[in-house]
Design brief:
By secondary structure, the chain is mainly alpha-helical. It has one domain. Helix content is 70%, strand content 0%. The chain is built from 25 helices and no strands. The longest helix has 55 residues. InterPro entries: PIG-U.
Length: 590
């Protein structure tokens, strides 16, 4: 285990170092004199010229080049823009209300970025000292904005561990998905060859691997998947570009993955099975101690998950559609149950809580199980709303009034800025008469909420999978999507490896997504810089990207349903084989 942990830690460290070196090289390359004119020609959306020059005095050339140079509107949105964040912090430091002058769209909690340490060269410093201070300032800025991606990779691996450790061994679907990774096939074949040499075999049956060889192969496979998930999360272009653009959506992804990770820990104790004898009871107790020491306290994980979920919804109101599956995840288990569809089941922690409440009651019939279940659900929802209310009050205290609600949460509902973005909303409302705007705003908002109930009901046996599907819907249909939303949806695919054999059109989905991702900045650059195109070209590429997101969600839904059907067919085939074998034995005996 130490060697596998060391391998995983090395992979994360290497990815972070590569990210930092790439960002440093790009920053100093764009700081060359030939690129200074590019930054000066780009006009910010600020009316006061003196304010514009003062804010731009400490601007980052990488941010300006990515967000305004090649037309990468998808790197950030008006609600996650770094320039809007700088404007908001500048106004806040000057004692001016940030939400009274312009549409900021950022939560008041982001004003805490104004208190981060900064290293800026003074006017009296020597050229050598100025260069050193500028390097330290750039390095500190890069590390600050690389931190959320590192946390996202860490939480993603923890979610995968919670889901994979919820069963004592890999089932057949997990084994087939693991074989799809080429690097993992060698380790499994090597362990099977070693076990075949040491274990005696019979001519009719293949030998079973020893517990040591199985544990070693499982440990190496798990560590390889951990490293692969971290690499995909940290080195994905969909994740790197928003980080270089200093988009606040990277922090939103880290907060959401943290909420999912802590919520999965609450139900991960369901992996501890019921002991059947004294020896099994001792092994279960020892395993329970190891799991508890690794995961922490169950109530603490629940509170952390609800707090981070409240923070995520507070930062962006679109994430409210993730509240039902997140509550279901906290109350259930993260283990894969796609092959075992059924009703919703509470996790082991909540079952023990209900059993304890019944035991402590003198008359157990006085408290029905339905009331006990409702009490638990209401307690979780109440704790969430308490955290959400506290964050709202803190934001109000920071700003001093309630006007920030309309500028932040209202922006997700009313679409005040029609800035081009990879979403499907902006162009539709650009061509619309103002008389019909309120009606279609309601239609678009309700359409986003329509997917919550079907996914949560159909996949109530696997709430983590329902959360994954709603993440894809949010990345495709939210008002102001960014590359970070697609990066989160793509990264979560690695957790559900059991659905890979049941995907119907993964290659067409990828072939639709890649051209759209490449054509969006190209068409935007031709439209706004050279003037050789128009908005129709860019919007057509965004529609293709939305189609790719819809294809991915539909394929994931179909694969999740096929898991249960294929498992049922396999069980029927196994029953038929057993029945035929019994018939042969009867005929042989006669």
């Amino acid at each position: 285990m130490p060697s596998t942990w060391l391998t995983f830690r090395k992979s994360i460290t290497l990815c972070i170092v590569l990210r930092v070196l790439f960002a440093l090289g790009l920053d100093f390359y764009l700081s060359a004199p030939r690129f200074v004119g590019l930054a000066q020609d780009i006009e910010l959306d600020i009316h006061d010229a003196s304010l514009r020059s003062e804010i731009r005095s400490g601007s980052n050339p990488v941010v300006e080049f990515i967000t305004t140079g090649p037309g990468l509107f998808s790197a950030s949105s008006p609600l996650t823009s770094y320039m809007n964040l700088k404007e908001c912090m500048w106004l806040y430091k000057k004692g001016i209300d940030p939400y009274g002058m312009s549409q900021i769209g950022l939560s008041p909690l982001y004003l805490s970025f104004s208190y981060l340490p900064s290293v800026t060269p003074s006017t009296t410093s020597t050229p050598t000292t100025s260069t050193l201070l500028r390097f330290l300032s750039t390095l500190l800025d890069i590390l600050i904005w690389t931190t959320p991606d590192a946390l996202s990779a860490w939480f993603l691996v923890r979610i995968w561990k919670m889901r994979s450790s919820s069963s004592s061994s890999f089932d057949e679907s997990t084994e087939s998905s693991v074989k799809s990774f080429g690097s993992l096939t060698k380790s499994s074949s090597a362990s099977s060859d070693a076990s075949s040499k040491t274990v005696s075999t019979s001519p009719t049956r293949s030998p079973k691997p020893t517990s040591t060889s199985y544990a070693s192969s499982q440990s190496s496979s798990t560590s390889s998947i951990d490293a692969l998930l971290a690499i995909i999360c940290l080195l994905s272009p969909f994740q790197i570009l928003p980080s270089l653009a200093r988009s606040t959506s990277t922090w939103e992804n880290a907060v959401l993955l943290g909420a999912v990770a802590f919520g999965s820990e609450v139900g991960a104790y369901q992996a501890i099975g019921e002991p059947t004898n004294a020896a099994a009871h001792e092994q279960t107790s020892a395993r329970e101690e190891r799991v508890c020491s690794r995961l922490g306290n169950e109530p603490s994980s629940k509170s952390k998950s609800l707090l981070l979920l409240a923070l995520r919804i507070h930062l962006s109101l679109d994430a409210v559609i993730l509240l039902p599956p997140m509550v279901m995840l906290i109350l259930s288990s993260p283990r894969s149950r796609l092959t075992e569809p059924g009703g919703f089941e509470f996790g082991a922690f909540w079952k023990r809580a209900m059993a304890t409440s019944l035991k402590t009651t003198q008359d157990s019939k006085a408290i029905p199980q339905s009331k006990s279940t409702s009490k638990i659900i209401y307690s979780v929802l109440l704790e969430f709303f308490v955290y959400w209310t506290i964050l709202t009050l803190i934001s109000t205290i920071i700003v001093g009034h309630w006007g920030w609600i309309g500028a932040t949460w209202g922006a997700s509902l009313s679409l005040p800025s029609l800035t081009p973005n990879p979403g499907v909303w902006w162009y539709f409302f650009t061509e619309m008469f103002d008389h019909f705007r309120p009606f279609f705003l309601v239609v678009f908002d309700v359409h986003l909420l329509m997917y919550v109930a079907p996914f949560c009901i159909k996949f109530q046996h696997d709430s983590l999978y329902a959360l994954f599907l709603l993440t894809g819907v949010l990345a495709t249909l939210k008002p102001y999507p960014t590359l970070s939303d697609h990066a989160l949806f793509i990264a979560l695919w690695g957790i559900f490896q059991e659905i890979f054999p049941y995907l119907t059109h993964p290659i067409p989905t990828i072939l639709v997504l890649l051209p759209s991702s490449l054509l969006q900045p190209l068409f935007a650059h031709l439209w706004l810089t050279h003037g050789t195109g128009n908005a129709n070209f860019y919007y057509a590429s965004t529609l293709v990207g939305a189609c790719a997101g819809g294809m991915a969600v539909v394929d994931a839904v179909k694969a999740g349903l096929r898991c249960a059907l294929e498992k049922k067919k396999q069980n029927r085939a196994t029953e038929m084989e057993d029945w035929e074998e019994e018939e042969r034995e009867v005929v042989t005996q006669q």
